[in-house]
Amino acid sequence: FTKSFDVLKLILNGGIKPRYCLEDIGWFNDDGDNYVAYPMSCFCDIPLSRISEHTEFYGKYGIGLSKDWGIRKQLNPVIYCTPNGHVVNLARHLFKWAGQDDQPELRDDADHQLLKLASLIKPLSGKMVIGDNRIEKDFYQENEWRYVPTSLDAIHYLDYEDSKDEMDALLDSYKLELTPTDIKYIFVPHDDDIPPLVDFINNNMGKFPLNELKILQSRIISLQTLQVDL
C-alpha cells in the first residue's frame, strides 16, 4: 500500500523497488531508541476483512499479489520476537560468537550473514519512524512478509540521513518485476479513481499483451465499495 497514486503507477509499470527503511532494533540491545536501516520492500498477509486499519495508516492505493508470487520472488515472513525470548537470545549469542572469530574474512562474512538474519526479525511492537516522528505500532498485527536484497549492507541510524539517497540509488537493479498476471487486486480509495487508472493502463502499459491489460482493469477495486460490501 502507498499514499500516492503516482507511486502506484510507477509500481504497475516498473515493478517494486526496495528502499532503505529504519527499523527499531531495541529488541536486540535493550536500547529503546536505536535503529538500523535495511534495504527492503514490505508486504502484509492479511484478509480483506482487516484491510481498513492497514490502509488508514499506510495509504489507500495498493496492489494485491498471490503468495505464490511472493515465494517465487524470495519474500519471507518476518520473525516476530518477544522481549528476551529465544529469538532475541539466539541472535545476541550468534553476534557475540561471530565477533570472536580470529579470521577477519570469516568474521566479516559471519557479520554480514547475521545482519541478513536480523533484517527479518521484528519485535511484536515498537516504534516506527515516520519523518521526524517515532510512532508506537503493533507490528504483529501486520503479518509482514519482506523482500530484502541479500548482497547489500545495513545503514546505522546515525548515518542514515547522509547515506540513504546514495544507497537507495543502488537498489534499481534489485526491483521486483511484475506482470499484469501477477496482480490479483489493485486498490484505489474511491470509485472516481478508477477511470484515471484505466486510462493510465491503456496509455502507458503497452509493453504487455492487450488481453492481460483488459483482465488487469477488471481487478481494480475501490475501497469505498469494498468497505460497503464488508
Features:
10 helices, 12 strands, 230 residues, three-stranded mixed beta sheet, five-stranded antiparallel beta sheet
SSE-based structural type: alpha+beta
Count of alpha/pi helices:
10
Helix content: 40-55%
Radius of gyration: 19 Å
The average pLDDT is: 89
Question: Which word captures the global form?
Answer: globular
* Spatial separation of the terminal alpha carbons: 19 Å
Uncertain spans: none
Main sheet characteristics: 5 strands, antiparallel
The amount of beta strand, in percent, is 15-25%
Element pattern in H and E: HEHEHEHEEHHEEEEEHEHHEH
Total beta-strand segments: 12
Task: Explain the overall architecture.
- The radius of gyration is 19 Å and the shape is globular.
- It has 230 residues and is an alpha+beta fold.
- It has ten helices and twelve strands.
- Helix 5 packs antiparallel against helix 6 (104-118).
- 41% of the residues lie in helices and 23% in strands.
- Strands 1, 2, 4, 9 and 10 form a five-stranded antiparallel beta sheet that branches.
Question: Would you kindly provide a brief summary of this structure?
Answer:
The chain has ten helices and twelve strands. It is α+β, with helices and mostly antiparallel strands.
Describe the SSE topology.
Elements: H1 5-14, E1 19-24, H2 26-29, E2 35-44, H3 51-58, E3 62-65, H4 67-72, E4 76-77, E5 79-81, H5 86-99, H6 104-118, E6 121-123, E7 126-130, E8 133-137, E9 144-147, E10 155-156, H7 157-168, E11 183-188, H8 194-204, H9 210-217, E12 220-222, H10 223-229
